[in-house]
Amino acid sequence: MQNFDYYNPTHIVFGKDRLTELDDLVPKETKVFILYGGGSVKKFKTLEKIIQALPGRQIVEFGGIEPNPRFTTLVKAVEIAKAEKVGFLLAVGGGSVMDGTKFVSLASCYDGDAKDLLAHGFSPVPVKKAIPIGTVVTLPATGSEMNSGAVISHDGGKFPVFSPLAFPKFSILDPTLTYTLPSVQVANGIIDTFIHTVEQYVTYPLEGRFQDRTAEGILRTLIEVGQKTIDNPTDYDARANLVWCATNALNGLIGAGVPQDWTTHMIGHELTAMFGIDHGQTLAILQPSIWTVRKRQKREKLLQYAQRVWDITAGDEDSRIDQAIEKTRAFFQSLGVSTQLGSYGVTHDKIDDIIKALERHGLTALSETGDLTLDISRKILEDAMGTTTS
Ligand code: NZQ
Ligand code: ZN
Q1: Ligand 2 centre distance from Cα of residue 222 (Å)
Q2: What is the reported pTM?
Q3: pLDDT digits (tens, 9 = 90+) for 37-82
Q4: What is the pLDDT of residues 355-378, one digit of tens each?
Q5: In a domain, 390, yes or no
Q6: Ion ligand 2 nearby residues (CB, 5 A)
Q7: How many angstroms does the Cα of residue 206 sit away from the middle of ligand 2?
Q8: Which ligand is nearest to the CA of 63?
Q9: If you measure from the C-alpha of residue 69 to the centroid of ligand 2, how many angstroms do you get, rounded to a whole number?
């Protein structure tokens, strides 16, 4: 196991009917800035309940944070945060709203051009303070509710923004607030959680036994509850398990001390930026092809994954790996998500543009060992293109 630091200060408030506790969670005597997305929180009355739970507070609102939140939208919220001198930010929504709110929190305390904050990759941004934030999660997927990262879209790219100051002070995870999600978003959330887990698990063995067993537990839970929570959105226990898996897949726990390979996310971000494909869908498209192309490098962990996650024990090693990749693809498809790039309207001639975008964004040495070149990314995209339009 590698050396690591593990720090996670977010207070999780999990369960039904916990919005009423907001009055105790949000600091008193400060102006509260509530940020949300395109309107689902109004339509389904979550915002109304939140405002009722904060009686007598000075509240400012900002709606309209879009999926894959844009820098140009968020700087408008930064202006309001500064002008109104707000003291606490409350994000109400999915990953896009939480990420957007993290950006507002950091950018509001940054003296330079806010665009600079997009240029630091996975290193912390040079911000010494931030406006504290809390979240009310309405979509289980990203883990943003318990981590210190955000992904911001700008000028044809998606840029990570990290800071230890961006951890939410608290996050309310009430699974019932997610019942109104369309099934496509639930499927996206299951796949996002699945991929966050395998990107910290299917690398090479390093005796991270607790991390491996925990990752396998998350994956097996997703396989058990995935279809159930899509078919029966109001089955509390199925949804509660999805919500808690999503948070734990990306709160630093399973990735501590083990190698990580974020190739799927990095190439996936280009597909979202260029073609508007949902984040979860890009991951379903790419993961089976990445494993097909990288079988040799990931051999031992793919065999472990085949056995411990899918109970595959029959056949020689190559066949067990192939079966595991096919089971994974079939799982994503069973949730209603196509795993072929071609079926999202992207044609073969666009591969050159995707490779150019990866190059422009410096994503030329991906993987757990940094050996994944643009030529290998091209092979992955060719494999992911698929042959049918289903
Ligand atoms: O905008 P509204 O009207 O609220 O509708 C949203 C949006 O259209 C809707 N929705 C959310 N909760 C709902 C609901 N509809 C009905 N009922 C509810 N309870 O769902 C749509 C998608 O929301 P979005 O927040 O975009 O989805 P998600 O949570 O999947 O977030 C995706 C973003 O997170 C980033 C992605 O890159 C993408 O920008 N990620 C952030 C990460 C992080 N901070 O750690 C890691 C991830 O890998 C990911 O990259
Ligand atoms: Zn993700």
Answers
A1: 15
A2: 0.98
A3: 999 999 999 999 999 999 999 999 999 999 999 999 999 999 999 9
A4: 999 999 999 999 999 999 999 999
A5: no
A6: 192
A7: 24
A8: 1
A9: 14
